[in-house]
Amino acid sequence: MSDEITPTYDDLQNLIERLQDGETGAEINALLAELHPADWADIIEELPPKARIQLLRALPVEDAAEVLEYIEDEETVAIADQMALEELAAILDEMAPDAAADLLGDLDPARVEALLAEMDEEDAVRPLLAFPDDTAGGLMVPLPFSLRSDMTVAAALDALRESSPDAELIYYLFVVDQKQRLVGVVSLRRLVVATPETRIATIMDDEVLTVSVLTDQEECGRLLQRYGLMALPVVDESMRLVGFITHDDLVEVVAEEVEEDTLHLGGLSSESEVFDSLGGAIRKRLPWLYVNLGTAFLAASVVSYFEPTIARFAVLAVFQSIVAGQGGNAGTQTLTLMVRGLATQELGLRDAVDLLRRESTIGLMQGTAVGIGVGIVAYLWKGNLLISLILCAAMMGNMVVANTAGVMIPLLLERAGVDPAVASGVFVTALTDICGFTLFLGMATLLLP
Questions:
Q1: Model confidence over 422-443: pLDDT tens digits?
Q2: Which of 123, 198, 284, 436 has the most CB atoms at less than 10 Å from its CB?
Q3: Residue 1 lies in a domain
Q4: 324 and 414 fall within a common domain
Q5: 189 and 206 in contact (C-beta within 8 Å)?
Q6: What is the CATH number of the domain that holds 371?
Q7: pTM
Q8: Measured in whole angstroms, how far is the alpha carbon of residue 292 from the centre of its chain?
């Protein structure tokens, strides 16, 4: 994998098909040798179980470990279950401690103990198993090296060379006291340019942003992104430094959280994939469709209440869905911004009044603009001025309701401890449908002769 190339999607799919057909030989081997571990992972995920193991065994252990880190969790567990104990332990030793802990956390506990006993890196991995995967403790890597504040720069550099930590992990050098409590941080650059006799205490920054071992991964990602950090130190309840989270790991976390919120907004589970099995796809999608069906019947009951009016003025049935649909679209726009703002902690309940004032004004302005447009079209189409005016007024009202709901529903769900990305869409759509039908058909009932 030394001379890696970046294949196109079609190139990768062609290679997968050739491997699935059992093709071997020098040409295939040459193509595989040029791939990045992430591309290897894509290929292995598409192969049948036996072929996956054969392909992994053809790699050096350190390369196989890197490839496994790119494979989805469920697939990695399936592969691990097919490997012999000694074979899997050797690969785990080559993986980053946090990645090894993530994999072990998904395996049978009895097998985990056997694997740890077989591993050389047990001391680095075992402590990480005490924390959930989605916390700072589950993401962190053990501290490879630390400094004392009374050390000189020369002594610190000598100790750094002797320790020989992974160069990719040394973004900052953390300074601890005799009880391993974090007291400061020094960038590698600052250490290198300082004079040899300088004390660490004089060049370290004693204001260090930390997270506890149980801090949620989403909060860790937000802090790293907000403050432009390359690593985030993790401390226990006594402020002892127990590890740190790298920038690379948190970039993956942020991407996962964005993907999860996107899927939730669409009424899908966070495990949903494009190429899920038919049964899996239906199982993951159907529950929210049933919830939507319930809200649809609720909206339909509102329409049913106005059946006599619709029977007298059948043209109302043509326009009622426009009012409800445009309200749903406006609510979704506001909802999307709210979910994003809550996820990044840019917004909170403290902002409710200002947000309601702002979004209701936007809703009124948008409703006026859209309402006038749809009213003109309705008049030119059907020639009934009163219905056109009712349609315009209902559109304005429903847009205000939509934007208000787009603010309040996510805030209330957040307050109740429910992920706004999961449930907000259903409630906003239901509310805009019900209010849209009620406003339009209600005004028609009252005003039409």
A1: 778 888 989 999 999 999 999 9
A2: 436
A3: no
A4: yes
A5: no
A6: 1.10.357.20
A7: 0.63
A8: 24
Q: How far apart are CA 288 and CA 264, in angstroms?
A: 10
Tokens of 181: 């409590």
**Domain residue limits at 60:** 9-130
- How many domains would you assign to the chain? 3
Q: Are 341 and 401 in a shared domain?
A: yes
Residues 122 and 160 occupy one common structural domain: no
For 187, counting Cβ atoms within 10 Å of its Cβ (0-12 exposed, 13-18 middle, 19+ buried), the class is middle
CA distance 382 to 388: 9
The answer to whether 328 touches 429, Cβ cutoff 8 Å, is yes
User: What is residue 374's three-state secondary structure?
Assistant: helix
User: Are the beta carbons of 428 and 411 closer than 8 angstroms?
Assistant: no
Please determine, for residue 1, whether its predicted confidence score (pLDDT) is greater than 60.
no
Q: Judge if 235 and 383 occupy the same domain.
A: no
Question: For the segment 245-283, what is each residue's pLDDT rounded down to a tens digit?
Answer: 888 777 777 777 666 766 666 666 656 665 566 776 677
Interhelix angle for 49-57 vs 73-82, to 10°?
Answer: 80
Torsion angle defined by CA atoms of residues 33, 39, 45 and 48, in that order, rounded to the nearest 10 degrees = -30
Out of 207, 231, 263, a domain closes at: 263
For residues 126 and 153, membership in a common domain is answered with no
312/413 same-domain check: yes
Structure tokens at 411: 């805030």
DSSP sequence for 43-62: HHHHS-HHHHHHHHHTS-HH
Judge if 114 and 252 occupy the same domain.
Answer: no
Q: In degrees rounded to 5, what are phi and psi of residue 436?
A: -60, -50
Among the listed residues 127, 145, 150, the one whose alpha carbon sits nearest the alpha carbon of residue 233: 145
Q: Which of 404, 402, 373, 384 is nearest to 444 (CA)?
A: 384
Residues 219 and 321 in one domain: no
SS3 250: helix
In 86-193, DSSP assigns E strands to 141-142, 172-176, 182-187
Q: Is residue 136 part of a domain?
A: no
Contact criterion met (CB below 8 Å) for 322 and 407:
no
pLDDT for position 52: 82
Per-residue CA distances from 124 to 37, 80, 177, 258, 261 (Å): 24, 20, 21, 30, 33
Residue 96 DSSP label: -
Other CB atoms closer than 10 Å to residue 26's CB: what's the count? 7
